[in-house]
Design brief:
The complex is a heterodimer.
Chain A (H helix, E strand, L loop, with lengths): L1 H20 E14 L12 E14 L4 E12 L12 E13 L2 E10 L23 H4 L6 E12 L2 E20 L2 E21 L4 E13 L4 E15 L2 E12 L4 E13 L4 E15 L6 E3 L3 E13 L2 E12 L10 E3 L4 E3 L3 E13 L1
Antiparallel strand pairs in A: 1-2, 1-19, 2-3, 3-4, 4-5, 5-6, 6-7, 7-8, 8-9, 9-10, 10-11, 11-12, 12-13, 13-14, 13-15, 15-16, 16-19, 17-18
Chain B lengths: L2 H20 L9 E5 L7 E2 L1 H8 L13 E2 L7 H11 L3 H13 L12 H10 L3 E6 L8 E5 L1
Parallel strand pairs in B: 2-5, 3-4
Antiparallel strand pairs in B: 1-4, 1-5
Classes of the chains: A mainly beta, B alpha/beta.
Chain lengths: ~375, ~150
């Protein structure tokens, strides 16, 4: 009897304690997209509403220094060939987070499936309410490395008025891509293992400048090939007065096959008033192609993308965006043509194509 | 000039005009006072120090104990006044900062209390707590600190 009473009294307390230890966050980035001439980034000519990213995050605080963090991801990618490679719901994050202090620096250790510090926007790439466009530059960030299965060690230390943030990581990650071949388009999901590297950020006490440098090595293993790749990012961002300026350059190279990639983008956001921001972005992507004959090394004509957006803040954390992009080059959801072919002594490129696309989207998070 | 570019420019101009008409001019006139738990041996704080505590860039009061900030909801007009005066940016910009922290797995925002009275009660009962309330709010049992 007494035991039953104690148990009954303990139940509400336990439930309250669990509620106090748990926090919930969610974000939605949902849009309607339409393209003019060619389908691209999952946006067909006839338009699609199947364009959405939803995340649900929960944190369970074990102690003042330890917590479990999980984040579910639901991503719909319109008519993109990549849509078939995405689960309807997936565990984007599932990690244990431990906070510590060492030599005057604040640090965290994350173990499990963790966010991967890579450039300025990788960790928030799905959170529309903190981005000026529906997504970060697809060329720079690609559909890859959005989480790391492994461990991330992070430290942050003030140095005078400056602040240095350093991350080191080891683990594995996925790279999803669409490859145009002579017979059509192939979706490839490659697993990168032995993925290690670091990301440094320096915050400068002038114009809110943040500088970043990222370098990572990873091993590609497929049934037919195996090799090492290197990914680097150099980043700069400044927020002053009503403006945010952002620029990044990334390189992805190595591995046995046939190309390496260099991408850069410039982005500017102007706060017109409390409700309206205007944004512009220009991306240039350049690839080198390697053929079996060493003399046949070719630089593919650049792929470019230029975009503009009007962003209305409906309420803090909720935005309505209208964006328009011009895109020229070779990367489309439709198999337009084989990009490059090798003749006896030269390389022939297919003619460049272009399209425009629009996205109207709602982004909110709490 | 291609027709779609003309349309885009016209659209953006209309958006700017509409949003400038729709922009509310609420917050800034409100004034607030900063309160701390009685055990916090701090008489005054700079706006920069207070901003760093509320953005969790600093976890302690200058030369003092752990700081436990408590905020008002994002919809509170007083929060907008506090954000502009202390952080030098709007509540929407501060909310965006916290969304970046939350969804990059770095940190979570301070807890929020729905009313000034609830903020006072929280600060009174929580060692190291720091909050802000409307100027006329009764603040028995907590300490008011000066902001430089």
């Amino acid at each position: 009897m007494t035991a039953t009473l104690v148990f009954a009294l303990a139940q509400p307390l336990a439930a309250q304690e669990i509620a106090d230890r748990m926090t919930w966050h969610a974000s939605l980035n949902a849009g309607y997209g339409r393209s003019s001439d060619l389908p691209t980034l999952g946006i067909p000519v006839k338009g699609t509403t199947d364009y959405r990213i939803f995340t649900l995050q929960t944190r369970y605080k074990l102690t003042d220094k330890d917590e479990f963090v999980g984040q579910l991801l639901n991503r719909r990618f319109g008519s993109s060939p990549l849509a078939g490679a995405l689960n309807d719901v997936t565990a984007q994050w599932a990690y244990w987070n431990h906070k510590f202090e060492f030599a005057g620096a604040k640090g965290t250790a994350k173990v499990g499936r963790t966010p991967l510090p890579r450039g300025l926007l990788n960790e928030v790439r799905y959170i529309g309410s903190v981005l000026p466009f529906f997504r970060p530059s697809m060329e720079s960030y690609s559909d890859a490395f959005d989480a790391l299965d492994g461990a991330v060690l992070s430290m942050r230390k003030p140095i005078g008025d400056f602040s240095l943030e350093a991350h080191g990581f080891f683990g594995g990650s996925d790279w999803r891509s669409v490859v145009t071949t002579s017979t059509g388009q192939d979706v490839r999901v490659q697993r990168m293992e032995n993925y290690y590297g670091s990301q440094l950020y320096l915050d400068v006490p002038f114009a809110n400048i943040r500088l970043g440098a990222h370098a990572a090595r990873m091993e590609v293993r497929t049934p037919t090939a195996r090799g090492m790749m290197t990914n680097t990012f150099v980043s700069a961002q400044s927020q002053f007065s009503r403006f945010t300026l952002r620029a990044e350059q990334s390189n992805l190279n190595g591995f046995t096959p046939s190309r390496d990639n260099h991408h850069k983008y410039f982005q500017a956001v102007a706060q017109v008033n409390d409700r309206l921001q205007l944004a512009g972005e220009h991306t240039i992507s350049r690839s080198r192609l390697f053929f079996s004959a060493p003399a046949l090394r070719a630089v593919l004509p650049s792929v470019t993308s230029t975009g503009g957006a009007a962003i209305f803040t409906i309420a803090p954390g909720t935005q309505l965006k209208f964006e328009h992009h011009w895109r020229a080059g070779y990367v489309y959801d439709a198999n337009v043509s084989t990009i490059a072919s090798q003749s006896a002594s030269s390389v022939v490129f297919a003619p460049e194509r272009s399209t425009r696309y629009w996205i109207a989207s709602l982004a909110t998070s709490f | 000039m291609p027709r779609y570019i003309t349309r885009l420019i016209l659209g953006l101009a209309c958006a700017a005009a509409i949003s400038s008409v729709a922009t509310p001019s609420t917050a800034a006139a409100q004034s607030f006072k900063v309160i701390v738990h009685n055990d916090v041996a701090v008489a005054e704080l700079t706006a920069a120090a207070l901003s760093n505590i509320f953005l969790k860039k600093d976890s302690k009061f200058p030369g003092g104990p752990e700081a436990v900030p408590v905020d008002l909801p994002a919809s509170a007009t007083l929060r907008d006044a506090f954000s502009k005066a202390i952080h030098g940016r709007s509540t929407a910009a501060v909310v965006t900062f916290w969304q970046q922290q939350v969804f990059s797995g770095k940190d979570t925002p301070p807890p929020t209390k729905p009313t000034d009275e609830a903020v006072v009660a929280y600060v009174k009962s929580t060692p190291g707590a720091v909050g802000y309330v409307r100027d006329g709010t009764a603040t028995e049992g907590v300490k008011v600190v000066k902001v430089k």
